[in-house]
Every structure is written in structure tokens, then in C-alpha cells.
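Interim report, section 4.2 (structural modelling).
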Amino acid sequence: MSGADGLRMNRRRLLAAISTVGAAGALTGRGAAAYLTDRETLADNRMTAGSVTLSLDGVDTGQASLGFTIDDYGFENRDEETVCLGLGADSNPGWVWVRACPEHPTLEDALDASLTVDGETVYSGSLGGLLGRLSGLDGGGVLLTALAGDGDPVEPGADGETCLTVAIWAPRALADDPDTVRALKAASPFTVTIDAYAEQSRHVPTPRRPVEGLNPSFTFPACEPTGGDEGDEDGDGYAISNISLCTSTPVDSTAITWTILDSDTGAAVTGSVDEPYAVRIESAEPIQYAVVKAGQEFRRFDVGDATTFTVTSTGGTLLDDVPPNFSRCACGGDGVKLDWMDGVDDFGAPVTLSCDGEAGGKPPTDDVGESSGGGPPDGPPGPTVRGTPGEGTTGDGTTGSDDAPETTGGGPPNGDDK
Amino acid sequence: MTHGSPLTRRELLAAIGGVGLLAAGPRVVGALGRDPSFTQYTYAQSAGPDLRVAWYERYNGILQEESNRFTGGDPLTNSSDAFNESGNDGRFVDVTGTDAVATGPVLSIPNAQPGDEGLLLIGLRAENGPARAWLSVTAADFAENSLVEPERAEGDTDDTGELQDYVDVEIWYDTGRLGVGGCNGERDFTEEAVVAAGTLAEVSDTLDGGVALDFGLVGDACIEAGTQRCLALRWRIDPAVTNVIQSDSASLDIAFAATTCDDTTNPFGGEL
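Predicted structure of the assembly:
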């Protein structure tokens, strides 16, 4: 025992020991090191942040592209693509939003499509309608689990995966619509891009729609095209939505006739026309110039008092700095206007413009032209309403109720992936 | 020297010498009081402060662990009564040294997410004599633990974790109002005495070198013998924190030292 050892120590050795203390203290600069202390350490504490990772066909990515090729008419010639979406095995549970945007609205409305979710067909109708539903109409998409379920958070790993199968086919009726078929061939292979976004569900009791104002952490980029008029990426540009025929003297609106032309061949189109790209005008009285609206652009055709001429969606002179509501009175003086009627697939009856000699752009003093024409007051004549899931056979409750934006509790947690 | 007194001058000197020698090795200082060679000398025991601890940990409002499980008592709750009762029943424990209970990590959060918050209440008891308590907090091991796709998308490409910069920590004297209502983990507006606050990295920078704790209500920094005081540590990850923290980790040591009341030398080596 050290106590017994201590008793055997002589004084000199003890003093030596004491001086050692002083030396040690001096070395460490802590002269008071001789004080007693006790120490308790709560050690090895650790904090590790969790993760939220998407899994699209097993890959941690936020986007999947499905390519479709359609070779023939009919459901039996459909093309099917499947993508399985979920969260990685190491991920936390989360809300998963998916979105697909309309890209070729005219074509997409002409095609038929179905969506099958884990074996259950939840949509059957036009492709345009399907994309409209998947875009959520506001571009925020839909909750993955709300497509065919209760809209709960997605559990990580393979068990929580949801497989979407999109089938696209050309309805047989399209055989009578050579314009659309031509455009379809030009756009083939058809791509449907699915964007996905996942957000932790802990502390996020209500899913936060990834659109501006509802989700401070993330918003999907806007769907393009976003405007009213439809883009068409196969070379024809936007379709004509209205034509103003301008004269120096009042013109008889009943003396105007028109013919829709095939923009490629210049030949008159027989059968129904979805969208006009070229129009031949015949008038009993000479026309000075015509102003065509296609998309958001205005084009002027100086036809030099001709009574028969052709306007197109891409020809003429592009007008810059067009004032608002220009098409309400695109003529400097007198004129008539033809508005494309979507439901009728033809121009409506020409309406008289009376611009009082003012420069184009001033609203007409007499608005009867617009109302009697029956067309939209301005701009986009409301192309085929895309994104209306009216064709859906399985009801619209899924997107309507489950991804309805609601107030979110607390702040914007941001454990997410997209 | 009479037979009645066990203390001789030699023995006394021997004791002092032993203390001094051992003190030169700071790591074993805490063990001194329990060294079997001194157990027969009561003067040696009473000379050294003996700090015992108890704790209560909550994560997102749910009790994770409490220290009474090591001594078989009723679970600690976040109240001064529970801590006082536990202390008076001798349920405060040593976590360092030969008598230490095997606690494992007190704070273990394997899956933290933005919006998470936690509370660690630590009771400090001066077991034998009054003690001045010191605190050191050291965060380390900032690990990236592989970069997940969302992190890369946020521009996080290095191999050092960022979690320590996004965990907000606040440490305060949970003494209650005039000594009533302490140890509840709620920072009463009268409990203004904050030891440190900031991100985990900032708090670690501030407290790594140790700081003297002052629980005193009227200028007496010491914990009286046989009493306990509570220190509260609250942490939180702001809901707005971005993806850069995904899968990152950090370790954290919370060390306490007790000195005698008249000892103002920082046992952790830092400045006061």
C-alpha cells in the first residue's frame, strides 16, 4: 500500500517530490495545477443529417424522359413506356411530386393516351388531357401517391415505388386529318418528360405544392409553352388566330371569302382543319394590306389593292412594338376582321372594323364588331383547351382534391430532392 | 504525534506530494479521489471535488433517454423537483473514470432533418464539497459521408461536412425564476444567463477551451455541497436549411470539470 510506502519516505525525498510539483506547474504555466479537480465527459455524441433522395428506375435523378414512336393507327399500335418512381433505400419518407408538361398541344390533343399506375388504369383520353392532368394545370404537378392512392408520403425503398405506364396511340379518325398526321410524323419520336421532386414529410404535415407562393423551397420551372397560342415546333410556327383586312374605304364584310391552304403545298385543304397556317382571301373590293396574328406576333402583308391574295402564319413583315389590343383594330382606317373559331374549325363571319382613321391599336369606339363576331376579344382565340381532363374516364377527383394547396404549418423544411 | 491522530507530518506531506505528481498528468486527476490507496484517509476524499451528473434528453419532443435508468430510479423528468429528488437519492452518476456508468453517447441523432430540435438537460451535483463547475464543448469530425445528388445539385462538392454550420445551439443556466421552476428546458425570460449561443461550430469555438459556469443567484458561482444545478442545451436545425447538410455528420463532446470554489484556473486550459 502506498500509505505504508509513504511512512518509509524520509523528509528529503518528500521535499524533492514537492519541488517536482512546482517544476511541473511552471512548465505548464499553471501554478495551480495542484488543485483537485474532477471531470465528467459526455463523449461520443454524434449528429448525422438524414437525406431525401429520389429514385427514378433506380437512379437518383429528378427527371425521366419517355420516348414514343407511333407507326400506325389504332389502340393495338400503341407505344407504351414505364417509369418507376420512388425514394432511395437510404432516404427518409417524403412527398413526391411528379409533373409532365404539354409541349405540342395541338398534336397531343389529337393523340389518345392512357395512364396506368401500378396496374390500375387511372386515365384514358387524349394525350393532351393526360399531360394537362400531370402538369397539374398550374405546372405544379401531382402527388405521385395521389395518382392512384390516398396521397400519403412515399416510403423509401422498393416497397414505396410507384410505376407509371403511359400508352400513346393514334385514333383511327386521324386518318382523315392529313395535316395533323404530317405534324405528328415531324414531331416523332414523341417525348414525354417527367419531372420529379421529393421533400421530407417530417415536419411537413401537408404536402407543399411546388409552385410559386406555395412551396418556398422549390418550384418546378414553368411549363412551356405557357401562352394561349400554341407553339408548333415542326416549322410552321404558330397558327393564324385572326386576319384583319384593311382598306381606305368601308368594305362589305359579306363580300369576303376565304380558303384554308396547306402551307406546304399551297393547295386548298379538303376536310376539317385543326389550325390554319395559310389562307387565301378573295374580296369583291380591293384590299390595301392585311394584318395576321399568329401566336403573339403580328405580320403585315402589303397586297396593293389586290382582290385575291394569300396570307400565311410566317410571311409578310413582322410588326414591332405592337400596342396592346392591337388586333382589335389592326387597320389604320377601315377594314374587316376574321377570327379563327376553334370549336368550329373555321373562321367566323367577317366583322367590320371601324378605327375612325386612328392608327392601329386604339380600341374601336364601337365594340359591336367583337361581340357580333363571337370570337374572343383579343389575342389567343382559345386554342383547344389543353389540360382539361374532361376526357378522363376515372374522374378528376384525384388531382382535384389531393394536391389542392393548403396552408403549410411552420417553415419550409428543405430536405428534398428533385 | 498522538495515537489518536492518524495524521503525521510525513503522511500529510506524502499526500500533498502524491497529489502534485498526479496533477501533472491532468487526465488522471479525476481518478485521484477514488484511488484505493487514499480511501483510508478521509482528509484526502474531502479535499477533492466530486462532480456527478444526470441528464434528460428529448428529440422532437420525445424523451430519448435519461440517466436514472442507470440507477434504477423513476425516470427523470424535465423539472427541478425530479432533478433534486434524483440528486438527493444519490442517482447522479459518474460518467468518466473507474466508477463511471457505461452511458454510451448521450446525444445520438442519426437522422436529423431540417425542422428537427432537441433538448439536453444536464444536472450537475457537487457531491462532497462545494464545487466550481467548468464546461467545455468540442465539436469535431465534420464528415460529408458521401455526396448525395441533392447535395451536388446545391454545389456542395468538397469532402468536409457542413452540418455544424447549420445546427443552432443554445446553452443556458436553467435555474428557473429565483431558483423555482428550473431544469425544465424552457428558457424563462428571467433566465437570461446564456453560456453560449450560435451554430454548433461557433459554440464549439467559444467553449472548446472551457468556461467557468456561474449558477449563483447572488454572485456565488459555486454549487453548494449536496446540491445540483441544471444546464440546458437546446439545438435546432432551421426548416429553411438547404440540402447541403444531407448525410453530413458531426461529433460533440460535452465535458465538465469541477474545481474547488477558490480555484479560478481553467482546467480545460483556455482563458476564463
